[in-house]
Amino acid sequence: MSTDKVALLIGNLSYRNHPKLKAPMVDVYDLTNLLRQLNFKVVSLLDLTESEMRNAVDEFLLLLDKGVYGLLYYAGHGYENYGNSFMVPVDAPNPYRSANCLCVQSILKLMQEKETGLNVFLLDMCRKRNVYDDIIPNVEALRVTANIVFGYATCQDAEAFELNSTGFTNGVFIKFLKKRLLEDEKITVLLDKVAEDMGTFDPTKGKQALEIRSSLSEKRALTDPIQSSGCSEEIMARNLQWEKAHELPESMCLEFDCGVQIKLGFAAEFSNVMVIYTSIVKKPEDMTSCEAYVTNFTPDLDVDPKETNKVTPEETGSYLLSKSLPEHCLYTRLSSLQKLKGQLSFTVCLQGKFNSMDDLVDWRTEVNIGKPLIAKLDIHRMVRRNSCLQTCHMPHSPSHSPTHSPSHSPGVETRYHQHYPQHYQNSYLGVYHHNHPLMTMGGTMPVDNECCMYSNLSSYNQEGEPYAVSASRVNIPIETTADINELQTSFIDSLEINNRYL
Fold first, then answer.
1. Band of the pLDDT at 441, cuts 50, 70, 90?
2. Which residues are in the Caspase family p20 domain (predicted)?
């Protein structure tokens, strides 16, 4: 039994100095829906910088207590050195080192101090060796405790993939995990089934396999009921903290002097992503046309006016919420709410035309909705004194990142084509809802033969059946080996090498 269930889900996809990813957004969204069905308090965040990730972990730790089930899911670029796993923030330099990333084992150490009932880490990232990072992290010794489960999306020294297509889809791990997550099974038994399912998937067979590490001494399942001993101060504080980070502004009706009424509504896509929608609910009979839109947002969010007030949610980038939003509105998607330092204000503009007038007339009103969702927690601040950073002492400060190698351009195009020393070559809220080249979710990736080539493969639908997709959209990193003909016959009739990253 658990005293509570809490999950932190982080999906990093819009990297500044490394290849961008697509699947983490869908993966976090789907996993959020499923975990909420299991009564988890879920915080779901996209595209966090290093300081934002550390502060988000701090907030996550505040939700933990004795007997609580804690789950951390991360999807994005990552690597593994000396048995320690590192999650790569979106602002990590190129190349990055441990000082620029978050050490998972350091987070586990802090979770152990909370005497949690179950610690689950689902790491959907590459586990390749980072050749730029030869520092052994000074992670404080972990306590010998039971009920720790690691579900690695791929094996040690291997890559994790996401499935790209013309639409949005899951990474390989979540594609199979989401089919099993609600099953009433011991967590390790559930993950074993996922591993077996992944082993039948032809596109990644021999490239990606789920690895499970566990110290379970009791039968623990994600479906376990919550049995809290009364309404203690700790439980009340925990609930308040979670609710604080998921409070949406109330819908409002704005009335203009001309007689027009506008409805302003809000929906949460993630804990740090919100959609604003506007619609005309009333207008005078002598007004031939009118339109309401939002503009002049608080500068903290850096909102592009060209991406606001769209006719469909999809045009704003909100593909996952589209079926849950009201129709016949104008939609604006606000991401990165964690960057909001003050209250969120914007202008609602009304533009209309009357029968008796040829010119359009404008009306404006200012709206302030405070700090919505995760913005209330101020995780934009610099790393706090008791941050998870302090448990992993690094030799140099994150604010003084190492310079680039003279022979290595910091551009994305060269990330996968570096020459390595010989000894490295074989190492290595709201509302929530929900086809494929394979893209690696690692960062620095040494491979055999000192290069990584990309081949065009057929894309597969959700059932794993192949369907046609243009060669320019599908790229699967593979090692250049003598078995290239075998790969051709296993996956496609003809294999075309695409060197667009060279």
1. low
2. 3-81
**Cβ neighbour number for residue 288 with a 10 Å cutoff:** 13
H helix intervals, 257-399: 313-316
The burial class, CB within 10 Å (0-12 / 13-18 / 19+), for 62 is middle
Q: Is the pLDDT of residue 435 over 70?
A: no
CATH number of 4-243: 3.40.50.1460
CA atoms within 13 A on the CB side of 347: 10
Burial label, 77 (beta-carbon count in 10 A; 0-12, 13-18, 19+): buried
Task: Report domain extents, the chain.
Answer: 4-243, 252-371, 452-502
Residue 443: Cβ within 10 Å count: 28
Residue that wins the pLDDT comparison between 27 and 453: 27
CB atoms within 10 A of CB 233: 7
Of the candidates 39, 16, 163, the one whose C-alpha atom is nearest the C-alpha of residue 90 is 16
Could you give the CA distance from residue 378 to residue 362 in angstroms, rounded to a whole number?
Answer: 36
Long-range contacts of 321-327 (CB under 8 A, 24+ apart): 321/267, 321/269, 321/275, 321/431, 321/433, 323/433, 324/267, 324/431, 324/433, 325/267, 325/275, 325/277, 325/431, 326/265, 326/277, 326/279
Query: What's the mean pLDDT in 474-489?
Result: 31
Separation between Cα atoms, residue 162 and residue 23, nearest integer Å: 6
Contact predicate 68/117, CB 8 Å = yes
Can you give the pTM of this predicted structure?
0.78
Q: What percentage of residues in the chain have a pLDDT greater than 90?
A: 58
The helix or strand, by DSSP H or E, that contains position 289, with its residue range, turns out to be strand 287-295
* 155 given a catalytic annotation: no
Active site residue 126: yes
Distance of alpha carbon 109 from alpha carbon 142, whole angstroms: 6
Architecture of domain 252-371 in CATH? Sandwich (2.60)
In the set 77, 380, 434, 436, the catalytic residue is 77
Residue with tokens 């489960």: 149
- pLDDT for the residue 418: 28
pLDDT of 10 reads 98
Specify whether the CB–CB gap between 294 and 352 falls below 8 A.
no
What is the pLDDT averaged over residues 117-125? 97
Task: Tell me the pLDDT tens digit for each residue of 314-335.
Answer: 999 888 888 889 999 999 999 9
Look at residue 266 and tell me whether its pLDDT is greater than 70. Answer: yes
Tell the residue number behind the tokens 């949610």, with chain if given.
313
| pLDDT of res. 162 | 83
Residues 25 and 75: their CA atoms lie apart, in Å, by 9
Catalytic residue among 126, 329, 388, 392: 126
16 Cα distance to chain centroid: 15
Same fold: 4-243 with 252-371 = no
